[in-house]
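Thread amino acids onto this structure.
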C-alpha cells in the first residue's frame, strides 16, 4: 500500500466514524446535559471534565451537601473512544483541541509539517478518552522530587501510593497472587488489565539477555526493567473517567455536567476570592456561574495556563502586553515539559501468514514495555521503550507513521516495505526526563484564540546527546540470541536529512533523533507545584482557586502521565473534603 493512500484511508474511516458519532449512540452512558441559569450558584465549579475533573466531581458529589458543577468544552466520548482498537482515529479529530506549536528549528524535520500537533482532549474524559491507554505510575524518585519542590512530604511516593491504589481495580490474577499485590487496588473505579499474548515471551528473554531485569510489574517499588504493559482497559472498554466516574454516577442529583461550554474567565471579588466563572455555551450565549466554596481548574497543561492568564494570573509583563490586569504575578505557562518520542523498526522472522483481523477489545499489537536507565546509580528510568510485535505485511505501522505521527510519506513507505513477508518489531522510544523547557503564552486576550506553544525541544543540547545514547543502547537488542537467529536488522528509513552520514554511527543516530523526534503529548508543568500552586494545589496570592491536572506536575514522571493525573485528582478531592467538612464517602 502507498503511504498517501493509507493516509486517505485513515481520513475516510475517521469521517465515517464521525457520521456514526452524530447518532449519539453512546450518550446513554454519560450524564445528561445540565440545565443552568445565568448567575446560578454551586458549591464547587470544576472547569474541565477530563481525567482529573471527572474524578474530582465524582468524589465531591459523594457528599450530598455539595452541589457540584463540571463545565466541559467538549461533548460525550464517541464509539471509537470506548473501543480500544479504534484509538488511532481519535488523532486530529473533533475530540482534540488540535492546537499547533510554534515552529522550531531543533527537531521535526522528518514530519510533514514542522509544527507539532499539541493534541489534548476536547471531550468528556479529556486525555483519558483519547490517549493510548497505558497505565504507568512512574518511579518513587519522581514523587520524592515533587515533595522537595513543594516542600511537603505528603507528595512523597509513600504518601501518594494510597491514592493510586484507591482508584485502581486491577484485573490480573498473576499480579494479584504475587508480592506486587501490595501495590495494587481491586475496588477502585479504574479497571486495569495486562498484556497477555504469549508471543511476547521471546522478546522478554532477549531484553533479559542484555542484562535488563524482567519484572511482573513496574508500578511498585521497582520501576526499572522490562514488563508486559498494564492498560486502562477492562471488560473490553476504555476506562475513560467520563465513563468510570461521571457516567457511573450520573444518577446523583447533586452532580451537574455542562457540556459544549467553554470557560473564558475566572471571576474574583475585591478580596481576591474566586467567586465563579464566565462561560460561552454551545448556542453562543455568555453566562456567569457562581461558586460558593471554590473554583477548581482542571483544563490540562495547555488550557489551564491559558485560562489563568486570561484571568490575570501569570507573568506580569506578558499579561500587561495583552492589556490584562494583573491579579497575581506568577510563572504560569513556564516550565512546560514533554516526553519526546521517535520510531525505530526491526526486521524479524520471515513470514507469509495472512494478517488476522484485530480484536476490537485490545490494542492491535502485543506490547513489551521497557523502562531503562543507563546510569545505574539513578533511581528512575532514563528512557521508555514500547515495543509492538507486528505481523508481516501489516498496514498498521504505515497508518501510524503517516496519519498519527505525520512523518513524511517516503520514510513511512520505507517502514512499510521493510515489513513485507517479515514480522517486525516497531519501537516507540521515549525520552523520559528532558532538561529542555518550553512555554505557553497567550496569542491574544481573546479567549477564542489558541495559545502559543513553544515546546523548547532540544533547547538544552544535553537532551539530544542523551537521546542519541539511549538509541545506541536500545539497538543492542539486535545482538541477542533470538534476534540473531531470525537475522534481525534495524530498518533503514533512508532519511534524506541524514543521507551523508554512515548508517549506525553516532553522528547518524544524532541526526536520526533530530529528524524523527516528535511529541508524546505528555505535557506538564505549566502551573507547577511550588511556584504557581502550593502543596494543597491552591493558586498563590488568591483565594478559593485551585488547579488539579498535569499542569501542576513540577517535573516529569518516568512514564505516561494519565495515572498520576488521576492520583492528583484523588488527592485534591481529599483536601477539599477535609477543609469543607465532608470526611470520607458520604453517599
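Threaded sequence (587 positions):
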Amino acid at each position: 500500500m502507498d503511504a498517501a493512500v493509507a493516509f486517505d484511508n485513515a481520513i475516510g474511516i475517521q469521517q465515517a466514524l464521525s457520521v456514526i458519532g452524530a447518532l449519539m449512540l453512546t450518550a446513554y452512558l454519560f450524564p445528561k446535559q445540565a440545565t443552568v441559569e445565568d448567575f446560578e450558584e454551586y458549591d464547587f465549579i470544576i472547569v474541565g471534565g477530563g481525567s482529573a475533573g471527572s474524578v474530582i466531581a465524582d468524589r465531591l458529589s459523594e457528599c450530598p451537601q455539595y452541589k457540584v458543577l463540571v463545565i466541559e468544552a467538549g461533548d460525550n466520548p464517541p464509539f471509537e473512544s470506548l473501543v480500544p482498537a479504534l484509538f488511532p482515529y481519535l488523532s486530529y479529530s473533533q475530540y482534540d483541541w488540535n492546537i499547533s506549536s510554534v515552529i522550531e528549528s531543533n527537531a521535526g524535520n522528518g514530519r510533514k509539517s514542522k509544527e507539532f500537533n499539541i493534541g489534548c482532549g476536547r471531550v468528556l474524559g479529556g486525555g483519558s478518552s483519547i490517549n493510548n491507554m497505558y497505565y504507568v505510575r512512574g518511579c518513587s524518585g519522581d514523587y520524592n522530587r515533587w515533595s522537595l519542590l513543594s516542600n511537603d512530604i505528603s507528595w512523597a511516593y509513600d504518601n501518594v501510593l494510597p491514592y493510586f491504589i484507591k482508584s485502581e481495580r486491577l484485573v490480573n490474577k498473576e499480579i494479584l497472587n504475587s508480592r506486587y499485590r501490595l501495590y495494587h487496588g481491586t475496588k477502585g473505579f479504574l479497571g486495569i488489565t495486562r498484556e497477555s499474548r504469549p508471543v511476547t515471551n521471546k522478546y522478554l528473554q532477549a531484553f533479559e539477555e542484555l542484562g535488563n531485569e524482567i519484572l511482573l510489574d513496574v508500578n511498585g517499588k521497582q520501576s526499572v526493567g522490562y514488563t508486559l504493559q498494564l492498560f486502562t482497559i477492562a471488560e473490553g472498554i476504555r476506562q475513560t473517567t467520563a465513563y468510570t466516574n461521571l457516567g457511573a454516577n450520573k444518577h446523583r442529583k447533586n452532580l451537574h455536567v455542562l457540556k459544549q461550554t467553554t470557560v473564558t474567565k475566572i471571576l474574583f471579588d475585591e478580596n481576591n476570592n474566586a467567586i465563579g466563572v464566565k462561560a460561552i455555551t454551545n448556542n453562543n450565549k455568555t453566562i456567569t456561574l457562581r461558586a460558593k466554596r471554590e473554583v477548581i481548574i482542571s483544563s490540562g497543561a495547555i488550557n489551564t495556563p491559558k485560562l489563568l492568564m486570561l484571568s490575570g494570573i501569570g507573568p506580569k509583563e506578558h499579561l500587561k502586553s495583552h492589556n490584562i490586569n494583573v491579579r497575581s504575578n506568577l510563572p504560569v505557562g513556564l516550565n512546560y515539559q514533554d516526553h519526546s518520542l521517535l520510531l525505530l523498526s526491526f526486521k524479524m522472522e520471515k513470514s507469509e501468514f495472512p494478517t488476522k483481523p484485530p480484536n476490537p477489545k485490545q490494542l492491535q499489537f502485543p506490547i513489551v514495555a521497557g523502562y531503562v536507565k543507563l546510569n545505574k546509580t539513578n533511581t528512575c528510568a532514563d528512557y521508555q521503550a514500547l515495543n509492538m510485535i507486528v505481523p508481516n505485511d501489516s498496514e498498521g505501522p504505515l497508518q501510524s507513521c503517516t496519519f498519527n505521527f505525520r512523518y513524511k510519506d517516503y520514510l513511512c513507505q520505507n517502514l512499510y516495505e521493510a515489513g513485507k513477508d517479515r514480522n517486525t518489531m516497531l519501537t516507540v522510544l521515549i525520552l523520559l526526563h528532558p532538561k529542555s523547557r518550553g512555554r505557553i503564552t497567550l496569542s491574544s486576550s481573546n479567549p477564542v484564540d489558541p495559545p502559543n506553544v513553544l515546546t523548547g525541544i532540544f533547547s538544552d543540547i544535553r537532551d539530544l546527546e542523551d537521546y542519541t545514547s539511549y538509541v545506541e543502547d536500545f539497538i543492542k537488542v539486535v545482538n541477542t540470541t533470538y534476534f540473531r537467529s531470525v537475522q534481525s536488522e534495524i530498518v533503514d528509513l533512508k532519511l534524506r536529512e541524514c543521507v551523508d552520514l554512515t548508517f549506525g554511527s553516532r553522528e547518524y543516530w544524532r541526526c536520526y533523533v533530530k529528524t524523527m523526534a516528535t511529541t508524546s503529548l505528555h505535557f506538564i508543568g505549566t502551573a507547577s507545584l511550588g511556584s504557581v500552586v502550593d502543596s494543597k494545589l491552591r493558586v498563590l496570592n488568591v483565594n478559593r482557586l485551585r488547579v488539579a491536572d498535569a499542569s501542576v506536575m513540577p517535573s516529569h514522571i518516568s512514564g505516561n502521565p494519565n495515572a498520576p493525573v488521576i492520583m492528583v485528582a484523588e488527592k485534591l478531592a481529599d483536601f477539599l473534603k477535609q477543609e469543607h467538612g465532608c470526611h470520607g464517602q458520604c453517599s
